[in-house]
Design a protein that fits this description.
6-stranded mixed β-sheet; 6-stranded parallel β-sheet; 17 strands; about 35% helix
Length: about 425
């Protein structure tokens, strides 16, 4: 009898799980990859910066998994709206949840909810064309912007803010978003970290890209680039060397300026009806290695604050969730009988895209061991359940039609290989004319 498994989420974690099931199963297996959007690939499509085409090429690998005869893509189907956990367990032998980490952590400071204070994930979703975010969400009308965080997401956000629309025109940025980037009034960008250069989370490659910006002077303050001793790994040593080399630079008068700041923590976002400034406190490390304030403050006159201090997962309806770790409690991927978890929802937002492959393999080993020799408990086929509720999933062929429409749009605009369609309606019109 064929083993039938549902994987909820079509990002790298979900698709690597589907691949591991096909490779590891000692019996016939059929995997349905269920996704709430009409499009697969998760953060590879909606999280990787548009000018990082080499990383986006991971989609070519994921595509091959979705094209395996044992794997089926069901887009536009939402857990908690169209299907319940009980529905899934009635239609499959096992379910693997792999929905990732979809929201930003909060800063927890006064003024954080003012208009103009937004999660970096919303900004990333905006320039990546995520259908949850309207192209009209951002108007870049403030001369100064603060990005809180010194990880790769913060670097991506800063780079997109610093570049011209012309530099991004060959990418897949939605055309309405590109036009808004072309109207940007941003002149100064402040990227702010609570700790020193040796604690920054960006990779050396991403950091070096900032130094190559043609449209922005990159500045680091010499006193904030000082690092006291320490035998650092090569990656961190490389970051320190690059940042310290920038500390000696003089601006050459490029249209925009990027100030990379360290040893500062946000204590209040200022403003009445919208963001008007950001109050920062100078920090240091205590003897225990904790970040503490020094009582020295400064204020920068920004009109927008983008928070990039980490992703976190959100609970799924009917699935256990630990509010402290913001993950699903599990043992080697097992949640409870016939329910499993993989990816960031399982372990938290750590590692790179490829880390999800070994993580998924572990979960699949657990699943297959648990189900070996057990009777199949499913009853109603999922297709019948969805049909009864009037839900028509987006098929893989329909996704390919969306992809083809994006290629045709790029050609008509004279812009690169693809321009993303903005919004669910445009996607559905492309695949169901």
């Amino acid at each position: 009898m064929t083993l039938r498994v549902a994987v909820i989420g079509s990002g790298p974690a979900g698709i690597y799980t589907a691949e591991a099931l096909v490779k590891q199963a000692q019996e016939d297996v059929q995997v349905d990859v269920i996704e709430r959007l009409p499009t697969p690939y998760g953060l590879v499509r909606y999280g990787v910066a548009p000018d990082h085409t080499s990383i986006k090429s991971i989609a070519n690998y994921l595509r091959r998994v979705l094209e395996l005869p044992e794997v089926r893509f069901l887009g536009g189907v939402t857990l908690g709206e169209h299907l319940s956990v009980e529905d899934l367990l009635g239609s499959y032998d096992a379910v693997v949840y792999a929905t990732g980490a979809m929201v930003d952590r909060k800063l927890g400071i006064p003024g954080e909810d003012l208009p103009g204070s937004v999660a970096a994930t919303d900004f990333v979703n905006w320039y990546c064309g995520h259908p949850d975010v309207s192209a009209s969400m951002f108007t870049l009308d403030s001369p100064e912007v603060a990005v809180i965080g010194v990880g790769n997401v913060a670097v991506d956000v800063v780079r997109v803010l610093a570049k011209t629309a012309e530099e991004l025109s060959s990418t897949d940025v939605p055309h309405d978003v590109l036009e808004r980037l072309g109207e940007s009034q941003v002149k100064a960008i402040h990227m702010i970290g609570r700790r020193g250069p040796e604690h920054a989370k960006f990779t050396l490659k991403e950091l070096r890209e900032l130094g190559e910006l043609a449209n922005a002077d990159v500045c680091v303050r010499e006193d904030e680039a000082v690092v006291l001793g320490g035998d650092f790994p090569r990656q961190i040593r490389g970051n320190i060397d690059v940042l310290q080399s920038w500390a000696g630079r003089n601006p050459v008068g490029r249209p925009r300026r990027l100030d990379v700041r360290f040893w500062l923590r946000p204590v209040e976002i200022l403003g009445t009806d919208r963001v008007e400034g950001l109050r920062l406190e100078r920090t240091r490390l205590s003897e225990e290695g904790r970040v503490v304030g020094t009582g020295e403050f400064e204020t920068i006159p920004v009109g927008m604050v983008l928070r990039s201090v980490g992703y976190q997962s959100v609970p799924l309806p009917g699935v256990p969730f630990d509010e402290r770790s913001m993950t699903v409690p599990n043992e080697a991927g097992r949640i409870r009988e016939r329910e499993y978890v993989a990816g960031w929802l399982k372990r938290g937002p750590t590692g790179v895209i490829g880390t999800n492959k070994s993580d998924a393999a572990e979960t699949v080993r657990t699943l297959l061991s648990d189900l070996a020799g057990h009777d199949r408990l499913r009853s109603a086929p999922i297709d019948a359940v969805l049909r009864e509720r009037g839900v028509r999933p987006v098929t893989y062929d329909e996704w390919l039609a969306i992809e083809a429409a994006e290629g045709a749009l790029a050609k008509s605009l004279g812009r690169g290989e693809r321009v993303k369609l903005a919004g669910l309606e445009a996607m559905l019109r492309a695949c169901r004319p």
